[in-house]
């Protein structure tokens, strides 16, 4: 599906800023970007879109299910493209590296705990904080 179709299918009018921001997330699909990151990357590419517009578009994309929003340790919202597949996150508290993972055993255990407590899981987010391997190596030197 192309970006124009994706915007229209989500009830969003096709505008230059929306197309540029959606394209940016597709070209940075493995990253978790803040509004400031989006602004900086667009500026580096010679594209000037105001910060207020960026925040508005990110919120619209999140509401439309195009992007997923996360609040990691920094407390600052970061966004990633919604690829339609669930995953969890490991976050380095030193360098802020984010590693995505999916573990069927963890998913099954969460469902079991919810069921034991009379819940049916409709959504969840698992963030694990630690020190990544690179930062651990630096600590030893």
UniProtKB/TrEMBL annotation:
Cofactor(s) of this protein: Mn(2+); Fe(2+); Zn(2+)
Listed name of the protein: Ferric uptake regulation protein
Binding residues for Zn(2+): 92, 95, 132, 135
Primary role: Acts as a global negative controlling element, employing Fe(2+) as a cofactor to bind the operator of the repressed genes. Regulates the expression of the fbp protein.
GO annotation, cellular component aspect: cytosol; protein-DNA complex
UniProt keyword Cytoplasm, yes or no: yes
NCBIfam families: PRK09462.1
GO MF term set: DNA-binding transcription activator activity; transcription cis-regulatory region binding; zinc ion binding
Cellular localization per UniProt: Cytoplasm
Keywords: Cytoplasm, DNA-binding, Iron, Metal-binding, Repressor, Transcription, Transcription regulation, Zinc
Signal peptide, first to last residue: none
């Amino acid at each position: 599906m192309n970006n124009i179709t994706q915007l229209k299918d989500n009830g969003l009018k096709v505008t230059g800023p929306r197309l540029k921001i959606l394209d940016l997330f597709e070209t940075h699909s493995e990253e978790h970007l803040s509004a400031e990151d989006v602004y900086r990357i667009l500026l580096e590419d010679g594209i000037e879109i105001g910060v207020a517009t960026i925040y508005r578009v990110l919120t619209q994309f999140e509401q439309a299910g195009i992007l997923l929003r996360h609040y990691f340790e920094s407390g600052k919202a970061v966004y990633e493209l919604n690829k339609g597949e669930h995953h969890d996150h490991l976050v380095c508290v030193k360098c802020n590296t984010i590693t995505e993972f999916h573990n069927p055993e963890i998913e099954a255990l969460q469902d079991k705990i919810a069921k034991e407590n009379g819940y049916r899981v409709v959504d969840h987010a698992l963030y694990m904080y630690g020190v990544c391997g690179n930062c651990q190596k630096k600590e030893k030197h």
